[in-house]
């Protein structure tokens, strides 16, 4: 996902991506990067909720 002109350092375009350590946001112009812990946490909760729903349907 792209966030246009939202870099805190240079106002460049940010790319949101995931690697083996979790979700991060990185600027394409200056390479400013930081982890997105809230996104990873909400994704885990979504998966857990989906697992509970799948078990109750069986």
Offer a few descriptive terms.
36% helix, four-stranded antiparallel sheet
Produce a short descriptive summary:
The chain is of the alpha+beta class and 58 residues long. The chain has one domain (2-57).
Kindly describe this structure.
- This protein is α+β, with helices and mostly antiparallel strands.
- It has one domain (2-57).
- Helix content is 36%, strand content 29%.
- The protein has a four-stranded antiparallel β-sheet with strand order 1-2-3-4, with helices on one face.
- The longest helix has 21 residues, at 37-57.
SSE order and pairing:
Elements: E1 2-3, E2 14-19, E3 22-27, E4 33-35, H1 37-57
Antiparallel strand pairs: 1-2, 2-3, 3-4
Number of helices: 1
Enumerate the spans where pLDDT stays under 50 for 5 or more consecutive residues.
none
Kindly provide the radius of gyration, computed on alpha-carbon positions and rounded to a whole number of angstroms. 15 Å
Kindly state the number of beta strands: 4
Q: What percent of residues are in strands?
A: 25-35%
Q: How far apart, in Å, are the first and last alpha carbons?
A: 35 Å
Task: List the secondary-structure elements in sequence, H or E.
Answer: EEEEH
Q: Helix/strand-derived class?
A: alpha+beta
Helix content: 25-40%
Strand line-up of the largest beta sheet? 1-2-3-4
Number of domains: 1
């Amino acid at each position: 996902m792209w966030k246009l002109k939202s870099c805190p350092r240079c106002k460049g375009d940010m790319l949101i991506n995931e690697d083996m350590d979790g979700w991060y946001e990185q600027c394409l112009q200056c390479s400013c990067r930081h982890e997105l812990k809230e996104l990873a946490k909400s994704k885990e909760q979504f998966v857990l909720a989906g697992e509970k729903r799948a078990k109750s349907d069986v």
